[in-house]
Amino acid sequence: QKEVEQNSGPLSVPEGAIASLNCTYSDRVSQSFFWYRQYSGKSPELIMSIYSNGDKEDGRFTAQLNKASQYVSLLIRDSQPSDSATYLCAVNKAAGNKLTFGGGTRVLVKP
Amino acid sequence: KAGVTQTPRYLIKTRGQQVTLSCSPISGHRSVSWYQQTPGQGLQFLFEYFSETQRNKGNFPGRFSGRQFSNSRSEMNVSTLELGDSALYLCASSFRDTEAFFGQGTRLTVV
């Protein structure tokens, strides 16, 4: 079992719809959780961080964390073609910065 | 505020050679982490430096090493290059133990 798992996709979403991405992690000591967006040929860009159970909203993005079930999700509302990218879930369980990444979910937003 | 700067952006090396990559973090960030990204293995953690000390280490052979200078700039070195070392090498900086911001990466090709 991988430490951080994501559905590889592609997740195909019509423009204007909600894209829902899921991520599960195996280590209960995980403390902080992040979503990165990576366009093809580019480096990962941080879009959301979440540290406690519940929802966190930032613009069109909402991250949800459920530590009891060991999953974190990302919702993208009003999806735009520019949201087409690979979304990486990352988990930090150590003191310091040692991120463990999932394999990423490729999202395609169709006009 | 300037972002994370990595140099060089592209490198082509021959098997058996060594290579040194450089990373300048965001001003005020004292934590620098290095990651390797390949199509097959995804994003994998190499090591993290904080205040010139290695704080975390991933599961890579000893051919991969790094260091951090008093101005928080960091370098990583790969000795005796192998074809499998061809990858995108990413550096990320953080202010304390919070969000990590990535540089544009160094694309290394070993021939």
What's the short version?
In chain A, 0% of the residues lie in helices and 55% in strands. Chain A has 111 residues and is mainly β. The radius of gyration of chain B is 13 Å and the shape is globular.
Main features:
heterodimer, A: 111 residues, mainly beta, six-stranded mixed β-sheet, five-stranded antiparallel β-sheet, 11 strands, B: 111 residues, seven-stranded mixed β-sheet, globular
Question: What is the radius of gyration of chain B computed over CA atoms, rounded to a whole number of angstroms?
Answer: 13 Å
Give the ordered list of helices and strands of chain A. EEEEEEEEEEE
Number of discrete helical segments of chain A: 0
Oligomeric state of the chains present here: heterodimer
Please report the total strand number of chain A as a whole number: 11
Can you walk me through this structure?
The complex is a heterodimer of chains A (111) and B (111). Chain A has no helices and eleven strands. In chain A, strand 9 and strand 10 form a beta hairpin. Chain B has 111 residues and is mainly β. Chains A and B meet through strand 4, strand 5, strand 9 and strand 10 of A and strand 4, strand 5, strand 9 and strand 10 of B.
Write the layout of secondary structure elements.
The complex is a heterodimer of chains A (111) and B (111).
Chain A: E1 4-6, E2 11-14, E3 19-25, E4 32-38, E5 45-50, E6 54-58, E7 61-66, E8 71-76, E9 85-92, E10 99-101, E11 105-110
Chain B: E1 5-7, E2 10-13, E3 19-24, E4 31-38, E5 42-50, E6 53-57, E7 64-68, E8 74-78, E9 87-94, E10 100-102, E11 106-110
Parallel strand pairs in B: 2-11
Antiparallel strand pairs in B: 1-3, 3-8, 4-5, 4-9, 5-6, 7-8, 9-10, 9-11
